[in-house]
Amino acid sequence: MRAGNPFLALLFTCSALAACGSNDRAPPSKGTSPQGTVDGGGSKTPDFDFSAFDAAVESFLSSKGLAGAGGVVVHRDYGIVHEKGYGSFDANRVYLIASASKILSVGVVMRLIDQGKLDLGTPISTYLSDWGTYKTDITLAEMLSNSSGMVGLIDNPLYAPYICQYVSSGTLADCAKTIYTADDTKDLKPPNTEFHYGGGQWQLAGGIAEVASGKKWADLFAETYADCGLTTSGYTNQYTLAYMAGGSVASGLAYPAFFKADVANLPATDNPSIEGGAFTTTHDYAQVLLMHLRGGLCDGGRVLSKNAVAGMQEDRIQEEYGGTTGDATLAGYGLGWWIDRTNPGVFADTGAYGAMPWLDLPRGYAAFLVLEADAGTGTDLRIATKPLLDQVFDTQ
Hints:
The protein has helices at 51-64, 102-114, 140-144, 172-180, 200-213, 217-224, 239-246, 249-253, 282-293, 306-312, 316-321, 375-394; strands spanning 68-75, 79-87, 95-96, 234-235, 278-280, 297-298, 301-302, 332-333, 338-339, 346-348, 356-360, 365-370.
């Protein structure tokens, strides 16, 4: 690979819906009603006090020299209970969320599984027979738990056979075919033996979803979350442009300066980054977190089956091969969710730009804090503020 290659920037980087006959409805999530009033579901929202939490976020931003952040807190019973822009950022700002895209992406695949179009345990070669016979021992479950044995981001983010995952040109199906048929056999590990985070396995999973459904990823995403009422969310593939815009490895690793919270500045693409290309607002992402808290339900109806949501939250790497992520605070991994093994029922999905969603099932709440920074800073913010939110809900 030549010196100065732009991909150096990537170092860190049932049933659903009415078609399945479900009339399930969740309590309304439009919980922006004043605390202490009756929300749309008919239950009285407690007088939650988020002042200490807000002060901690503002203090954190000041200490890190950051311009702003976004935050939202949701509760299983009361919907959105707190939503705020911090610093100079308003509450409606649009963010690129890097690897916090994974939960959104897994939801798309799980909906196809609910519909019977895919199966987690079936070899992927079953769905890709038109492309030849390759990777016959790999399944979607292994890919979505970073356990397929394929080369991951930490192993080699510049791995040439998978480099199309970072390019906005071409199509997702073409990139998936390139990865599926790649001459990578000598570099593969046996499936279900080691945790290898990220990389081509996610782009390949997205391509499989397109093949099985006969639809483009953008359409699958829109259909999956239609009942959640998302208004400003989608996928792009920003990685090459992020490098080229700044002209250096450092600029490629940082939050894309060209974006400026304006979707019009993003490259249109038929090859979206499945693991790291989502953009969203805190309000939109809150609907997805509520869906996970509510066992697959959004305001408009059932999005995922209860089994699909629960399956995403199972510590698959522990159960299958006694694996660990290597992160002491989030040592387990399900399907898209990092899992806190010391605090059962707590899950997170760290993003390379500092986006940090988490679920706390025992307390019945979830939160999404999002920065324009890096993964380490986002993790630090979660560690600094989660105990304050825990205290808020423990007092109720």
